[in-house]
Write a structure and sequence with these properties.
By secondary structure, the chain is an alpha+beta fold. It has three helices and ten strands.
């Protein structure tokens, strides 16, 4: 599984290849954009770059893992591939606030998943993925993939 840059321009986020991101950074540092004085301010590090253009656009580039891929498996199962491993994903369980007299409450929506066996069948323990999990974890990547 590779890396990509998450490009955020004025709140709109897209994924771009490393080549595209480095071309934008290079252009902002020493390219045509600098010669024409279109860059107001720039900060660049190993995994993050911040460019403020003279036309008030603000671009932030952050190196992240490539997003997980979702495919349809046999028997209507969803298969998510993340960092080279396949996971069989169940349905999303919506959040249910605690109601008076109710026995069960689900404070946050989640999705269940298991490791995918050689035939795409689930194997191993059932785990959950949530939106509040730390970015870069399997659970968070699966949650992000099924909520696109």
């Amino acid at each position: 599984m590779g890396k990509v840059y998450e490009r955020t321009e004025n709140g709109v986020t897209t994924h771009v290849s490393i080549r595209e991101a480095m071309a934008e950074v290079n252009d902002a540092m020493i390219g045509r954009v600098v010669r024409e004085r279109r860059v107001r301010r720039m900060s660049s590090g190993r995994t993050q770059h911040h460019i403020e253009y003279a036309d008030d656009r603000v671009v932030r580039l952050t190196l992240v893992d490539e997003p997980a891929k979702v495919e349809a498996g046999s028997h209507g199962r969803r298969i998510v591939t993340f960092k080279g491993k396949r996971y069989v994903v169940g349905e999303i369980t919506p959040a249910r606030p605690k109601a008076e007299g109710a026995c069960i409450s689900v404070p946050e929506a989640f999705v269940t998943y298991q490791s995918g066996g050689p035939l795409g069948l689930p194997s191993g323990p059932t785990r959950t993925g949530k939106g509040s999990m730390r970015p870069g974890t399997v659970g968070r990547a699966i949650w992000d993939a099924v909520n696109r």
